[in-house]
Specification:
The complex is a heterodimer of chains A (395) and B (247). Chain A has 395 residues and is of the alpha/beta class. Chain A has helices at residues 11-14, 20-31, 51-62, 75-89, 104-115, 131-138, 158-164, 187-199, 257-270, 276-287, 291-313, 338-349, 375-394; strands at 38-40, 98-101, 121-126, 142-147, 169-175, 203-207, 233-238, 251-254, 317-318, 326-330, 351-355, 366-370. In chain A, helix 5 (104-115) packs across helix 9. The two termini of chain A are 13 Å apart. Chain B is built from eight helices and seven strands, in the order H-H-E-H-E-H-E-E-H-E-H-E-E-H-H. Chain B has a seven-stranded mixed sheet, sandwiched between helices. In chain B, helix 5 (146-157) links the parallel strand 4 (135-140) and strand 5. The longest helix of chain B has 15 residues, at 59-73. The N and C termini of chain B lie far apart (48 Å). The relative contact order of chain B is 0.21. The chains are: A alpha/beta (395), B alpha/beta (247). At the A-B interface, helix 2, helix 3, helix 5, helix 6 and helix 9 of A face helix 1, helix 3, helix 4, helix 7 and helix 8 of B.
């Protein structure tokens, strides 16, 4: 296995290689120098925001609905989100259990600030979106990794969760479907994990941002719907991925009311209310036609099948991708460290892919490949990568 | 009604008790949106600019902020030193969180009210005593008494480990002074601005300048990724400072 000291990797990439978030941003920055680059990195849906959401944003401006909302969020949107969570996710919540955030990432930050004192530990499945690390560290908390593995489709194993618990463990983070693996926490596992959480009095933070994108008849399951979980579950979700509206920056948290008040206190002095026009757009997303989600789902499913076929032809192995927009691809057979491989594919094929090391230090044998480009561009990316992968393998 | 949960099963973080309660009630309406801002927002929506922007914020808005700072104070900086934030609130918190360690002090020429909550959250205290030890940052606004501002600047000029914040995001800024007009202070002066006086609810602010501009940008990104794309494009329709509002 080659190392990060390989001269193929430029100094400015090597300098940030140990920081998953900065590594991802560095590669995105490098890709800007290639006008024909095909971006299979960032998790930003390429599809257009549905027209009724765009129109709602315009109407809010026309109607002068642009003044600041309460820090908690637009009351109508809090009501709509609570209704959705009751109907679709089986949660016992009302509007007082909901706060609107400036995207899901801010939600994570607020949650950690509100629940963690210095030294408190949070269990996080590995691999993971490394912004979790930053949010936990920012509150003085300590991340404790819970291993997941390829053979288990990166499902979370209850015994691995229990083995990681210490007297300082305060919370468990569940991400289903997962970024980066596309794995899900199946209902049977969620039930077993809920039992553990109750037994050890853990808070469960359930990140469900990709809940609408499961494939092959897999079903989303919200752990907060289980008996005994309402008072210990913080559900995090948002509009960015579901409705292809990442730029609006609207997410939400559902939790016990005292935590919602705490989150509002923190939000008031850190970012203030979410942008008002964005919230009206989100309200239209939540209460309007949900048909676009079905269209998005069909398109993403077609694309992931196209990419899976291409990856198999390149000799790659990947985990069973049950959800989200990503193929978590084992690139170990190339003999090239993932950070170097991602750099080479960008330099030589002008295809931007994130290395597994962008999602944790243990993942130098993996690539995260998103399918957020048209089928034509995905096909083009595959054709560019194939000969290079063959060449890399033979060197 | 539901059996909605009221209390989390575990205690909240102790820092929460340091912060004041927040009202849930609806706030007053905003002034009418100008035609130029409306058009800029509609153009962005029509062109599909509804996805993440670059991490620093869109370049033309950063250039606009730079021009505004230059016009108002005669202080020059590059657009690459600017990060667009979710209002001045985020700019203030990001700055304090990154530059002030718990237990340190923030020297204020005025009340320091705009940063009081953020200071509490990061575990810092406000002071008006220029002789205090453990001062990490001086917080100044264009509305602070001019003599007090000068006293603070004199006190920190030789203390090279003290950062300086010039917060022009306050309402109706009055002074034409800017700490970075002194070249010796420019590298450690962070300018905070906001469009909230003309665009309340759109949540547009910025952080500008200093040798820690990239560090502050990275932390902002870790909190909120980027500022609302539509708000950023809409703010391009806004005129800042003494310019006449275009209609």
């Amino acid at each position: 296995m080659m190392t990060l000291h390989n001269p193929n990797i430029p100094e400015d990439v090597r300098a940030v290689a140990a920081d998953g978030t900065q590594l991802r941003y560095k590669l995105m920055e490098l890709s800007n120098q290639y006008p024909d680059a095909i971006a299979l990195g960032r998790g930003d849906p390429d599809l257009a925001t549905p027209p009724h959401i765009i129109e709602a944003a315009k109407q809010a401006v026309r109607d002068g609905k642009t003044g600041p909302t309460p820090v908690y969020g637009l009351p109508e949107l809090r009501e709509a989100v609570a209704a959705k969570l009751r109907a679709e996710n089986g949660l016992s919540v009302d509007a007082g259990n909901v706060i609107i955030t400036t995207g899901g990432q801010e939600g994570l930050f607020l949650i950690m600030q509100a629940i963690l004192d210095p030294g408190d530990e949070v269990l996080v499945p590995d691999p993971r979106y490394t912004s979790y690390d930053e949010a936990i560290a920012s509150a003085g908390g300590k991340i404790v990794l819970v291993p997941t593995d390829h053979a288990d489709a990166f499902n979370l194993r209850p015994e691995a969760v229990e083995a990681a618990i210490t007297p300082r463990t305060k919370a468990l983070l569940i991400i289903s479907p997962s970024n980066p693996t596309g794995g899900i926490v199946t209902e049977d596992r969620a039930r077993a994990i809920a039992d553990i959480a109750i037994r050890h009095n853990l808070i469960v933070i359930s990140d469900e941002i990709y809940e609408k994108f499961l494939y092959d008849n897999w079903q989303h399951f919200s752990i907060g719907s289980l008996p005994g979980m309402a008072e210990r579950t913080i559900t995090l979700n948002g509009f960015s991925k579901t409705y292809a509206m990442t730029g609006f920056r609207v997410g939400y948290i559902a939790a016990p009311a005292n935590l919602i008040h705490a989150l509002a206190k923190i939000k008031a002095v850190t970012t203030g209310a979410a942008a008002t026009v964005s919230q009206w757009a989100a309200l239209a997303a939540q209460t309007g036609s949900q048909a676009p989600i079905q269209d998005f789902h069909r398109i993403y499913d077609e694309r992931r099948r196209l990419m899976m076929t291409g990856l198999r032809e390149m000799g790659f192995d990947f985990s069973d991708p049950r959800g989200a927009f990503f193929l978590w691809t084992n690139s170990g057979s190339t003999g090239i460290h993932a950070t170097e491989l991602a750099y080479l594919l960008l330099r030589d094929a002008h295809v931007l892919i994130f290395p597994g090391t962008g999602f944790g230090e243990n993942w130098g044998n993996y690539l995260r490949i998103s399918v957020l480009q048209s089928s034509d561009l995905l096909h083009e990316a595959i054709e560019r990568m194939k000969p290079l992968i063959m060449r890399y393998r033979s060197r | 009604m539901t059996n909605a949960p009221q209390q989390l099963s575990r205690p909240l973080a102790s820092r929460v008790t340091l912060l004041p309660d927040v009202q849930e009630t609806r706030l007053p309406d905003a002034p009418p949106t100008s035609e130029a801002v409306m058009q800029a927002a509609f153009d962005a929506l029509d062109k599909g600019k509804t996805h993440y922007t670059d991490r620093p914020g869109i370049l033309p808005l950063r250039e606009k902020a730079v021009a505004h700072i230059g016009e108002t104070y005669g202080v020059e900086m590059g657009a690459d030193e600017v990060t667009i934030t979710c209002g001045a609130t985020e700019a203030r918190f990001v700055t304090l969180k990154q530059l002030v360690k718990p237990g340190m002090k923030i020297l204020c020429a005025g009340s320091g009210e705009p940063i009081a909550g953020a200071a509490a959250l990061v575990g810092a205290t406000l002071t008006h005593n220029t002789d205090d030890a453990d001062i990490a940052l001086a917080y100044l606004t264009p509305n602070d008494p001019a003599d007090q501002v000068q006293t603070v600047l004199n006190a920190v000029e030789a203390r090279e480990n003290v950062w300086i914040v010039w917060d022009m995001g306050v309402q109706n800024p009055q002074s034409s002074l800017h700490p970075a007009q002194n070249p010796a202070l420019a590298a450690r002066t962070i300018t905070i601005g906001s469009a909230s006086d003309k665009l309340p609810g759109w949540r547009i602010g910025w952080l500008a300048g200093s040798k820690v501009a990239n560090k502050l940008r990275a932390y902002k990104q870790s909190m909120t990724i980027c500022t609302s794309s539509i708000s950023q494009w809409a703010a391009l329709g806004l005129t800042l400072g003494s310019e006449t509002e275009s209609q």
